[in-house]
Amino acid sequence: MWGSLVVALIAIGAVGAANVVTGGDTTTTTLSLGTTTTGLTGTTTLPSSSTTTTPVTKKPATIMLSVVGDTELGNSPQVPANPIAYFAPVKAALAAPIVFGNLEGTLTSATDSKCSSGDAECYAFRVPTNFANVYHSEGFSVMNSANNHSHDFGTLGVLQTSAALRAAGIAQAGLPGQIAVVREGTTKVAFVDFAPYSNTNDLLNYTVAHQLIAKARRLAQVVVVYMHAGAEGSNADHVTRANEYYVGEDRGNPYLFAHDAINEGADLVIASGPHVLRGMEWYHGHLIAYSLGDFENYDNFAASGDLVLSGILHVSLTSAGSFVAGSFTSVRLSSIGQAFVDPTHAAANFVNQLSRQDFGKRAAVIEPSGSIRFAPG
């Protein structure tokens, strides 16, 4: 297992549940100088009680995480026969001490779907509760439930999903008041997740969002904000800087919310929801990834055009939240929605195009090597 990853789920008001990490980035070493030292000019006698205190400053601890977008493995009984094999083509690329994904759907045996029978325009996703162990085996340590599918199967679906993730050792974030805290080494990382719904941490309620981000800052050294925001579909790949709507729903203003989150203390902002990739931006030295698209999408949505492009975002931050390094692995979805690493780098090229068009000088550019070029922003 990578590092010493400790998981704690923090509901708002439950500060006492957090693990406490003690220690700092600076150590002080006291050197006792013996009774005598010998120099070029002879022997010098020093008092036996003489000591010198020398501060030794350590390099700040670094945490590493990988991030993917919407991850759903079908709708029972239409699920992969071997879900571990389904993940196999991207497992190595996904590996990191902390792995985050958006759980697009539920882990439940509940049958009371939000969708009426025969409604072809309504989607509801559920997979067996033991699929939580599959996610854990693939390295996922944090999964998001702030999205439009976390309540697909009612209250029972929500409760069973939370219980399954907890039993598998995966932190859950995004339900009302919920913050996930994980730890790599001695550094705690808080994930505060939002979607434009009152049955999640509400992206449209900036007052509550500010309170949650402030609480996350008290709970951890590093704060990551996730947003499930923006319009959907093949024409939704640009950041409009305005409120975006889909099927009559206000899906928020991703540009405004991301900037506000960083102003309030977020160190990194990540997102999905539009089902397509969007550009990446530097803002005050912090990275914003406006949509990572669909990562695993078992046999459900259209598999053509920009809908098949996805990626794995890797980010390293100091224990104070400063950017150290980043990279982007291009992924392409097959005709059944299975993710494969794409050696043509089509996704990276597409993200660069969008980033330059939408953000100009603040674009976070992916180099041919996959590394992300830092800019103060």
Any chance you could write out the topology, listing elements then pairs?
Blueprint: E1 6-11, E2 26-32, E3 36-39, E4 42-45, E5 51-57, E6 62-72, H1 83-94, E7 98-103, E8 106-107, E9 126-127, H2 131-137, E10 142-144, H3 154-168, E11 171-173, E12 178-184, E13 187-194, H4 206-219, E14 222-228, E15 245-246, E16 249-250, H5 254-263, E17 268-272, E18 280-283, E19 286-289, E20 294-297, E21 309-318, E22 323-333, E23 339-341, H6 346-359
Parallel strand pairs: 6-7, 6-20, 7-10, 8-9, 10-11, 13-14, 14-17, 17-19
Antiparallel strand pairs: 1-12, 2-5, 3-4, 6-21, 12-13, 15-16, 18-19, 21-22, 22-23
The CATH homologous superfamily is named Metallo-dependent phosphatases
Which radius of gyration do the C-alpha atoms yield?
A: 23 Å
Q: Could you state the order of secondary-structure elements as H and E?
A: EEEEEEHEEEHEHEEEHEEEHEEEEEEEH
Overall average pLDDT: 87
Predict the CATH topology: Purple Acid Phosphatase, chain A, domain 2
- The CA-CA distance between the termini, in Å, is 35 Å
The number of helical runs is 6
Helix content: 10-25%
Tally of structural domains: 1
Unreliable parts:
1-54
CATH architecture descriptor: 4-Layer Sandwich
Could you say which structural class the secondary elements and strand pairing correspond to? alpha/beta
* CATH class membership: Alpha Beta
| % residues in beta strands | 25-35%
Taken from the alpha-carbon principal axes, the silhouette is globular
